[in-house]
Fold this protein.
Amino acid sequence: MIQELRKRWNALQQALAREGGDAILITTNVNLFYVSGRIFSGAAYVRLEGDPLFFVRRPVGLKGGNVIYIRKPEEIAGHLQQRGIPMPAKLFLETDSISYNEYRRYEKIFDPRVVCNGTQLLRGVRSIKTIYEIGRIMRSGVLHARLYERIPSLYRPGMTDTELSIEIERESRRLGSLGIFRIFGQSMEIFMGSLLAGDNADAPSPYDFALGGAGLDASLPVGGNGTPLTDGTSVMVDMGGNFTGYMTDMTRVFSVGKLTDRAYRAHDTALEIQRRIEQTAAPGVPAADLYNLAVRIAADAGLSDYFMGHRQQAGFIGHGIGIEINEAPVLAPRSKEALVPGMVFALEPKFVIPSVGAVGIENSFLVTDNGVEKLTHCEEAIVPLQ
Amino acid sequence: MIQELRKRWNALQQALAREGGDAILITTNVNLFYVSGRIFSGAAYVRLEGDPLFFVRRPVGLKGGNVIYIRKPEEIAGHLQQRGIPMPAKLFLETDSISYNEYRRYEKIFDPRVVCNGTQLLRGVRSIKTIYEIGRIMRSGVLHARLYERIPSLYRPGMTDTELSIEIERESRRLGSLGIFRIFGQSMEIFMGSLLAGDNADAPSPYDFALGGAGLDASLPVGGNGTPLTDGTSVMVDMGGNFTGYMTDMTRVFSVGKLTDRAYRAHDTALEIQRRIEQTAAPGVPAADLYNLAVRIAADAGLSDYFMGHRQQAGFIGHGIGIEINEAPVLAPRSKEALVPGMVFALEPKFVIPSVGAVGIENSFLVTDNGVEKLTHCEEAIVPLQ
C-alpha cells in the first residue's frame, strides 16, 4: 500500500507545484481516505516535498513514523516547528467542503499569506485514477453487474417499487456492498440508490441526480414512492455499487408486461447514444462534446422533450466516479474538462416517457490510452420481469 | 402543516430576537426540512418578523406565496429589494455547516455588518421539539421497537455479524425505514447502524460514536467486520430508526450461548444507570450531572475500565436526537446544557468486556414537565439467540 500512496502523494505534490502552493491540509473523510488509505479523525498535511504528516485524534493505536497524535488541530503548529518545517505561505484548504468555522480555525493556526481551493485541487488529482484504484473500481463493477443479473429472480408479481428495491438492497449487501453512498457536496442525499417505476420517474427532485422520484417521505424526496409494479410500467434500477470503497454506477431497465413502442424506441436511442459516445470518447475529447453529441442524437430521434427527464430535465449525461459518486469530469455543456487516460466516468443517457416511466442505460467507463472501456457488463435490453 | 411550521418560525424568531439578529439564511437540507417541512435546493430566509421567504432552485412546481424561484443565490438581493425588505445588519449563517466558499458568497450578497453562528442558533431551537415532532419521534420509536422484537426470529446459527445485520436492515426497511442516517457534522459516517459481536466491539473507531467496530473496509471502519456469531459472544444491535424523518436510537444485546458473569453484571449495571438517570432526569437538571452520575455508578461497580469502551472510551453517555442522530443536548462532562421539557435524547450506558463483547442498553427519552418518558419499549435483558 505504501507504494500506492506514494503515487498519490506525488500526483498531489505535482499539482501543488503547478499551482505554486507550499502545502495542503486535508481534513475531510474522503480525501483523508485518498491520501492515507484509511479513515481517521484528524488531518493530513502534504507539503511540496517529503512524506505527508498524519495528525490523528482517533482511532487510538495507529502506527507509522508519520503518525502524530493530537487532541486538537492547534497542536499542529508546534509539531511543525519541532520538526523545523516552516509555515506555508500559500496553503491549500478544502474550501468547498470544510465549514466556515473550520476554515477560520485553520487560518489562525497556519496564518498563511494566501489560501487556495484545495477541494478543486484534490478533485483534479483524484479524477485520474491509479492502477490500484482502477482495480478497485473494476472489482466493484463485477459485483455490481452480478447484482443486476439477479434482479429478475428477486421480483414477485404484485410487488411495489419499494418492496423490489428492498430485496435488491439486501442482495447488494450480501454481495459485499458497504451500503453507504458518498456524494460530493452536502446538498445531495440518497439511500442505496433509486428504483423508479412508472410516472414516479417524472416526479421532480430537489437533488442534482439525473432523475428524481417522489420518495417515501418529504424528508428524503427521491426514488421509489410505493408505486405498484403493474402491467405496462418500466422499472429503472439505478442502485449504487460501493463494494470496495470505490463506487460504480449502473442502470438497467426492466418491464412489467409490454411497454409502448415509444418507450422501446427511446431505450434504443439511449443505447445508440452510448454506442456513439463509446466510439467518440478518447483522451483529449472535451466532456462537453460528448454531452452535445448525446443531445443531438436525442433531438434527431424527436425525443428532446423526454431526454434526461421530462417535467424537470438534468443538465448532464455523465459524471466521474471514484470514492464519491460525483467526481470530475462532468459531461455537461459548460464542462471545461477533456478526457485523460485513467479517468473513470458513468454515462447515463435516459428518457422519461409519460405514463410508462424511465428507460435508458448507465454504465461505468475507464478512459484508456486510445478510447474507453466499459466496466459494468450485463444485459442492456429492457428485461421483462415475470 | 402551516400551523406547525408557524410554531417553528416563531421559536426561531424568538431566538433571533434574543440574540439581536435581523435574519437567518438557511441552506442546509436538515434545517430547510425543519423550517419548510420538505427538502428543496435553495435557501430559506427567516426575518425577525413576517413569514419566511423560500428561494427555490429545485424541484420545479412548488406552490405558495412565499416561494420564489431563483437560478442562483445572487438573485436573492433583488427579490428582497423588490419587496422593500432592508438588508440585514446582523445576519445568521450556518457557519458550522456551510462551506467556506458558500459563506463568502452569501457574505457578498448580503454584506451584513456582522455574521453570527446560525448552526448553533438552530441547534438550540431544534433541541426543543414541537408536539408534532414528538409524535413523529414516538412513531419511529414504536416501529423501531417492533423491529427489535423480530431480531431473534432473524437469527440462524452459523451466521456472521454482517449476515445478521443484513437481515435486520431488510426488516427495518420493510417496516418503513427510510434507510438514511443523518448525522450532524461531516466527520461521522455509518450505514444503517452497527451490530457488534465479540471483541470487534473493542476495535477503536475514528468516529465519535459510543462504540466502534472495525467495519468491513478501511473506507468505512465502523460496525460489524464479519465476526462469526459463536458460543459465548454478545451481539449488540444499535441500528438507527429513521421511519419518519425523525430518528430514534435504541440498543439491545443478544447472546449466543451463555456469557461470562462479568458481562451479565455489567449489563445489570447499565440497566441500573438507566434506572437512576430515569429517576433523576427532569427539567432543570444539567446534562453534565447525568453523565457524572453514570460514571459514578460504573466506578462503584468496579467497571470504569470497561465503561463506554475499553481500548478507546467515548466521552459521553447520551445525546439529543431528532432529524439528526446527534442533536443537542449532549450528556457529557463539559456539557453546559440543562434539560428542558420537549427535549428528546438517547441514553446509552454501555460496557465492552474483553473476549465477550459489548453489553448495555440504549433508549430514547422525552423530557416531560416533571421527568422523562421512555419512547422505545422492548425487552431489556440480554436475549439468547437460538
About this structure: DSSP finds ten helices and 19 strands in chain A. The mean pLDDT of chain A is 97. Chain A has two domains: 2-126, 128-385. The longest helix of chain A spans residues 261-280.
